[in-house]
Amino acid sequence: MSSALSTLATGAPYHVFAYSILFGSTVYQSFFVGITAFRALPRQHFAALQRKIFPPYFAMQAIIPAFLALTAPFPILDDKKSLTILAFTAVTALVNLISVGPQTVKLMNERKAQETKEGKKYYDAEVSDEMKALNKKFGMIHGISTLVNLGTLFAIGAYGVTLSAAMAKGFVVATIAE
């Protein structure tokens, strides 16, 4: 069996694929899909889309770091820095999945109910004090979710640097051995 095919019997290619999915989907959702959907869709459709996208997105961000820890092509259990980064990635995603995301949806629903009660949209110029308070709270929670997601993205990027350093070190060792 060639050395390239024998690599498939290790966790290395699956680790790289999983990392690529995690980093790529986080960048894509954060900077392309979300922005494009916000600009292209009516607000109610955008909100409905986000309600459906975010739970599996945050779940993926929380699960893949554990898979990365299990498939690392280097002795990750001895690498406290990598373990810390992966744990941070999973925890920030869980915060959005379990806490901040549901709070955001709850506030969106409360704003919708207030719109129905007032007969006005939450973004109209003249809204009630209740709607202003809901808008302020929604803005704060949404901002927290965005910051937490950016923390997740930076942690994933930091892990990518660690992974590439391990890969470069392995490449140098393999080249010297040849």
Mean pLDDT: 89
User: Total number of helical segments?
Assistant: 5
Low-confidence stretches: 172-178
Q: Roughly what fraction of the amino acids lie in strands?
A: under 5%
Name the overall outline.
elongated
Rounded to the nearest angstrom, the radius of gyration is: 21 Å
- Please estimate the helix content: over 70%
How many domains? The number is 1
- The sequence of SSEs as H and E is HHHHH
Report the span from N to C terminus. Answer: 18 Å
Number of strands: 0
- Structure class: mainly alpha
Main sheet characteristics:
none
3D architecture notes:
- By secondary structure, the chain is an all-alpha fold.
- The protein has one domain.
- Helices cover 84% and strands 0% of the residues.
- It has helices at 3-6, 12-40, 43-71, 80-118, 129-177.
- Helix 2 (12-40) packs antiparallel against helix 3 (43-71), helix 3 runs antiparallel to helix 4 (80-118) and helix 4 (80-118) runs antiparallel to helix 5.
- It is elongated and about 70 Å long.
Task: Please summarize what this structure is.
The protein is mainly α and 178 residues long. The chain has helices spanning 3-6, 12-40, 43-71, 80-118, 129-177.
List the defining traits of the structure above:
transmembrane; 5 helices; mainly alpha; 178 residues; transmembrane helix; membrane; single chain
